[in-house]
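Sequence in, structure out. Go.
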Amino acid sequence: VSQQLKEEIRRGFAGLEDPLAGLLDMLESSSDWKGKGHSLGYYISTELQLWIKEHPAVQQSGIKLKKLQARVLQILAQCPANLLDPLISIYQLHTADRNYLLEHVSHLYHEGHYKEAAMLSIKLKLQPDQDVEKMCTPLLLQDKTNLVEDYVGEYPELQSKLLQILDAWCEPGFNISNITRRYQGLSRYKPDKFNRKMLNKLVFRLLDRFNVDPALCPNVINQRHLRTLNYLFYKRFVEKTMTQENWTDHVQSTVGENRWLQGHLIQLLISYCDLNTAARWAQRYNLPKEMLPYGVAEELQKLQIQERVEEAAKADSYEESKKKDYYQLPIPRANIHFLQTWEETLWCWEKVLQPGQVVGIDMEWKPSFGMVGKPRVSLLQIALKDEVFLLDLPRLLEQAEAEGEKEKLPRFIQMLYSDAAITKLGYGMSGDLNSLAATWSALKDTDKQARGVVDLLKVDKQVDVLSPEQSYEDRGFRQPEKGLSLLVQRVLGKPLDKTEQLSNWEKRPLREEQILYAASDAYCLLEIYEKLCKDPASFGLSSDLTESLVGKPSIKPSAKKQLNKQEVPSPSGQQCQGSDKESPRPPAPISPKEFSVVCDNMLQGLGRYLRCLGVDVRMLENEDDHRKAAEIARQEGRVILTSGLPYQTLQSQVAEGRCFSVNCSEKAREQALQVLKHFNVRVSLADIFSRCQ
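Output:
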């Protein structure tokens, strides 16, 4: 509004004997303010609201104010939302007689002005004295759910009442037309929007927004659980993508002690399975015979232990066949560590938070099946080359809260994700980080601070395999692989066994199958990454794979200057050489006596061979950690000889050119020739056996 207009409005107020009555005269004689947007009436009203604060003497009271309030209430029934606050303030409607205001709102309601009645009630805070069902029902029929939410927004008691009403309408057998019949002829009525589906969605939205106990809405919750049951039967018996144990876990968790759901479960078992299976579940829940359909009660008496033995035998043969068909974890079971205390995690962080480390990260949470709220992470998996750590987050969080040190674990997780010197491998990492933020508010900005991360989901979109090693038809009828499982199949030859994916990850203790599944999910990322970096071209990827994956933050500035697109470090080799690149000038020749190396523990054969030729060799023992090689190299000025993933860890801990990756598949003689040629070591007859063997 221009300054000139403001000054003109204020001169007008000053010239009136009673500006409050003057504003009403103007609004009553004009209709420009009834439309949407900012009208002249709106500007004059808001300016008067400010002017009164500067000239409190113009305020009215007593009979005179009551008369003005009666007039303004007539205007409020027609005015747009933006005029409500200024007029309520100017005419002090909060001080008006409450019964008088309630009568006025009731009159609006009976005239069919439901929206206006609700908005005025919210502004004047009249809701505690009104009938929530009566006020909200017509609004729901007009699809004004946002207004309904605002109406109960500040009153927990009304929120509970409204939810109980909505839940009662969702009771099986309730006829919704009983409600709609009362409001026939309602303006802007949207019957197609008023149905059980809409009511269900609204109930869950309100439960989530107002943090109300879901037990208040048994009908809606039961219906949601019944849909979950149907979905579980589809996954187990139609798609065949869930194991018996996993499916059983979820069915028990969904049905609980609810007799109504138990009855539906028995009906579903009869449809999808047989009377015998239905009888087993009836026995498990100790259902009374009068609840059981015909045939199940009789079958209940025939159950024999022999059937359970047969079932166990089938399960064993299934496990054996699975090993042939699916990716298998290449490390011993003893190297998978389930961590539940802070002391145990310290051991994990010492190993993980090392410069040059490459780690596979995955997370698991209990599937929500459409229930309220974001999932909370139940398990965090961190895989290194030789071992996998499974962190029991609910237990660790509980321990941290009991000790008053809630931020301790999140701090380590942030250190891991923000350290550009540690390569973090994931699959769909943004989704994992969102779930982590929902579990711990302290981790909400982890995705923004993340450095040195490689999301293999992005690579998956680029991977091109013309002839997969084995199609899913060859393994009998089963769903085609997708997601990470498909990438594992394309790169490593066999898919992941995803039957534990929809497990109840909150239940403790975890089953052995869950532990192996969780470890495989994280560890396979290391193997995929290594294979893609070794031979990107055969997967349709460019040779600058590492740079495009890890991104700029994870490449050290000093290294970046020395690399171009044809010369990028791979996790297990020195460089991915481009064909156009001229070979670098070899170093000056040296004798074996001048050449000192430390051999990693997978290259002991090479170490012995080099020692025969007179080279100064130190070797790691089998039980030594790979990082010991870097310590020895720095202290004694030795070159590190290693292979595979440890190269990625070790090469960043020593000077450039002081770490060399050897091809592990070759024999010691060929490996030795490769090393001598690379470092230009010239061996004479006098050097052979010159050192103690």
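Check: Residues 466-478, 551-583 have pLDDT under 50 and may be disordered. The first helix runs from residue 3 to 15.
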